[in-house]
Amino acid sequence: MFIRNPEARFPPQALLCTDPTREPAQIVGWFVRRWSVKVTFQEVRAHMGVETQRPWSDTAIARTTPCLLALFSIVTLLAAQLPARQRRRVAIAAWYLKPRSAFADALAAVRCAIWRERTSATSPRRRAQTKPRFRLPAPWAYALCHAA
To answer: How many CB atoms lie within 10 A of CB 44?
Structure first.
């Protein structure tokens, strides 16, 4: 099937399907649904280094890519469990305003939550502490979470 934008904002495209009994609307629906998968792979490439590894063999790439995709999924699920206030924290620059958070922001929020949980963890023993526990100031933690 051949599709084109009547306003000529996008170039015409041919969509192919191996099943000739499918309706054109369903074929276009499948084409549109692939967008979320495409965006996921772009985010994984940008933030986790998929397809940019420099290992010595093809088998090493075959091993690391599924692990990185699994890590992407775990970070996404952990970010979804965070309170909305932490999840919506978006890193912006003076020259670039983002309306919504990206994967980099979700990754930073998960890092910050893990670090906060780790620094507030206490020992099971009930000893008196001789020195105060170090607590990372919030602005430093925010900067480090986005830089890590």
So the answer is: 19
Query: 94-138: per-residue pLDDT in tens?
Result: 566 767 777 788 888 888 888 777 655 555 566 665 666 666 777
* Site of tokens 């430093």: 140
**Would you state the structure tokens that stand for residue 20, as one six-digit string?**
């000739």
User: How far, in Å, CA of 31 to CA of 122, rounded?
Assistant: 51
What is the Cα–Cα distance from 105 to 91, expressed in whole angstroms?
6
Across 87-102, b (16+ Cβ under 10 Å) vs e yields bebebeeeeeeeeebe
Which residue's structure tokens are 């904002």?
9
Asked if residues 17 and 27 have their Cβ atoms less than 8 Å apart, the reply is yes
Across 7-122, where does the E strand assignment appear?
A: 13-14
Cα Rg of the chain (Å, integer): 22
Q: What tokens appear for 148 in the block?
A: 């890590």
pTM comes to: 0.53
